[in-house]
Fold this protein.
Amino acid sequence: MTKRIAIIGAGLSGLTIARNLLQFADVTIFEKARGVGGRMSTRYSDPFYFDHGAQFFTARDSDFRNFIEPFIQTGDIAQWKGKIITFEAGKKPDKSMWFEPHYVAAPNMNSLCKKLSENLNIILNTEIAPLEEKHPDGWRLKDKNGVELGIFDWVISTAPPVQTVRLFSNYLEADAPLIQAKLLGCYTLMIGYNKPWDKKWIAATIRENPLQWLAVNSSKPGQSNKVTCLVAHSRHDWAEEHIDDDMEAAQAFLVKQLEDVTGMDFSKCDYLSTHRWRYANLADRISLDPYFDEKLKLASSGDWCEASRIEDVWLAAQKLSSYIRRSLVQINHD
């Protein structure tokens, strides 16, 4: 009998696992947001487009390079090239070039996730409730409103660790590695102008400031050069200290910080908004195996396994896929 698998989360991790297991099981993805992407999401406010989560990715592992190569050939992934500068108060900006290729999905970061989601069974706007007692026929999933969603042999969570622990709380051991992982928050400023970008750099690192990153999102391949879209990320330690601040106050403070360090005036911008990521980046670079309980048929993978880089997320998803695939094949042989 075909096994039924529920995957929670339609970011790169969940989509990758789903595609890897399609030929072995009946797979359903549940996503609480209104679209796929997770940290690779894009904010749309026409004519402005902001990759307000992951900005780019590198490809250092040969398997990951093999994965992205077909997308490079079709133009769905492209190199993001240009000058990078460093801002620090009281110092002249320092210009440089990236020392390795930096890739983006084109025209937006969530474009890759949309490609990967093709022909998958994805149910959006659905937040899964914590698992209750396991029945002989499998896990009976419910949404947060108590609506039953089906019976599944496996439940795989690619949600952030805090959320996954909440989902699996009745079944995780106290020393489970998943519980050790901690993700830090981040604030993202999105600033738009109805005019082209008029400077020669495409991104900047920011030092000694509550902000750490500024990108000219509109300089990415496939983006319109008729508008300017800027994305600025806060430092994670600052975000953690201010994670529950009033959003308008946090936005005003960060805009002032950005103006001070760059010398730019954002008072006349045509678009301004802020997004708060409660779970953005792994606090400490560690190396943990994906969570895999073959007896209970619960599993989890994501940016908590080793690092929050796109490449590491994909590699962890590949590893967990292989564990579950072996289990499914073994059952079928038995």
Summary: The chain has a mean pLDDT of 94. The helical segments are 12-21, 62-74, 110-116, 161-168, 177-180, 236-241, 247-262, 310-333.
